[in-house]
Recover the amino acids of this structure.
């Protein structure tokens, strides 16, 4: 699905068409393309040698988010601008507040997004030089794309029993790893550039969700409902800005082929999309 940052509504998109190269809007020319909060390795600094050891203590990472368990709200030593420290609650349900993970979880029934100050601290931690006046725009885009990704996940989940109660359990950014589908599209794009993607996604996330199913035949409230986990792969693509200069992004969200149920859903939805395309033609 293709999304315009300047509009809450999805744009029509042909899923068989190639995704254009990643544009760099003039208002954010120094903004890194991929999500900094989930990058596992920063790009090497242009004038400094790579550090001898990883600067992030992995035993201090939240295993459910692969982010520092407690994101600092403190200003950086050479920081010039005052960045907001207030966090924004998402609409994405999360497990109970008693789950481990510290501040990275938030405090309510939904996941909390990092504040601009926390976001900037994560960028500094990863060695990225980022204009401070761009951080709030980056956070807005980051949050917007997460909300749209969750909307797409729920379109899949609501097709299944208990899907309306699905929660996001954990997630991981994997920007250096192409998904099998993205790799296939790149290979096919070399042969059929008018039909398949010719540019790789600028980011990839893997999200694990949990849905709870209460059997209709089980009327005993003391018997706990069954829970099912499912992994979703999200490839993030950039498209050219719209006529007003707003950035446009395309998200490819689908269940990972980890189970027979996921394979069946992918086949069913693929046939439905093909059939709708035939009707339009």
């Amino acid at each position: 699905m293709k999304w315009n940052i300047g509009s809450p509504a999805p744009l029509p998109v042909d899923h068989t068409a190639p995704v254009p190269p990643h544009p760099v809007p003039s208002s954010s020319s120094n903004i890194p393309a991929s999500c900094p909060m989930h990058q596992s390795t920063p790009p090497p600094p242009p004038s400094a040698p790579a550090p001898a050891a990883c600067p992030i203590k992995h035993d201090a990472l939240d295993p459910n988010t692969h982010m520092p368990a407690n994101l600092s709200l403190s200003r950086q030593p050479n920081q010039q601008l005052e960045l907001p420290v207030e966090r924004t609650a998402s609409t994405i349900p999360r497990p109970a507040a008693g789950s481990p993970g510290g501040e990275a979880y938030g405090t309510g029934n939904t996941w909390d997004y990092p504040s601009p100050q926390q976001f900037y601290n994560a960028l500094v931690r990863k060695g990225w030089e980022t204009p401070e006046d761009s951080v709030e725009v980056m956070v807005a885009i980051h949050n917007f794309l997460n909300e749209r990704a969750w909307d797409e996940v729920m379109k899949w989940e609501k097709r299944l029993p208990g899907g309306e109660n699905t929660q996001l359990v954990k997630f991981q950014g994997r920007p250096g790893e192409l998904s099998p589908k993205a790799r296939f599209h790149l290979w096919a794009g070399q042969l059929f550039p008018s039909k398949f993607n010719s540019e790789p996604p600028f980011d990839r996330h893997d999200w694990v969700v949990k849905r709870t199913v209460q059997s209709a035949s089980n009327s005993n409230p003391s018997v706990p409902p069954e829970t099912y986990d499912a992994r979703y792969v999200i490839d993030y693509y950039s498209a050219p800005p719209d006529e007003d200069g707003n950035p446009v992004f395309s998200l490819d969200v689908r269940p990972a082929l980890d189970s027979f149920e996921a394979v069946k859903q992918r086949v069913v939805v693929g046939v439905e999309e093909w059939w709708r395309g035939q009707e339009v033609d």
User: Anything to note?
Assistant: Strands lie at 2-4, 10-11, 61-62, 67-68, 88-93, 110-113, 167-173, 203-213, 226-239, 248-255. Confidence is low (pLDDT under 50) at residues 4-34, 40-60. The chain is about 25% helix and 20% strand.
